Sequence to fold (205 residues):
Amino acid sequence: MGKYSKETRNLSISLLKPMLESLHITDPSPLLHKVTSEGMHMMAVNHYHTGLQQQLLSNSAAQIGIPPHTDHTLITVLLQTSPGLHVLDPTDGNWKDAAAPSEIIQGGAQNTLQVLVGDQLEVLSNGRYRGAVHRVSQCSPDNCSRISVASLLSFGMDEVVEPAAEMDGDELLKPFYKGRSLRDLLDHLASGEKLPFIETLRIMG
Ligand SMILES: O=C(O)CCC(=O)C(=O)O
Ligand SMILES: [Fe+2]
Fold:
């Protein structure tokens, strides 16, 4: 796991670099330096299995799966042992299976990594990149076995993330997001507020 974690962190950073360059941020190096020196990298392992499913069913009507959400990250790299991850396609509003069709046919997605844009990249890019809305479909009650490993790269806990000051070589004219940190996200979650955090950051009009 240690080696995998290191490799996915390196992969995320090497993906982030051209993404920032694509925004024509005059000098992306200080941003990248912040991520590499003070950023957070977390690994989350989700195990969806029949025992847990049955336990949930006996207690309530709940079923295993994850409802639609975006990640708090800059970038998430996800490994799944079998299909189940769906991503919302903003162009037509339909959910798309994140595994390639050939993998679905073969019943596995072991050799593929999914890369998801998270909220922090949406804010930093002033909405040019949009956080990927994703969900995990519910397991069948009698045949549920799935593991996913998420590698979550973000700025540090107290870094206030806001639209980058200069993009496309010009001054940023109008920021569409408020600047907030991960600590603000934790306060938001603790407050019991139902609105997704990213929606509280968007500045309308
Ligand atoms: O299990 C998965 O495929 C996705 C998990 C996920 O979205 C998350 O941990 O944020
Ligand atoms: Fe997620």
Notes: The first strand starts at residue 40 and ends at 49.
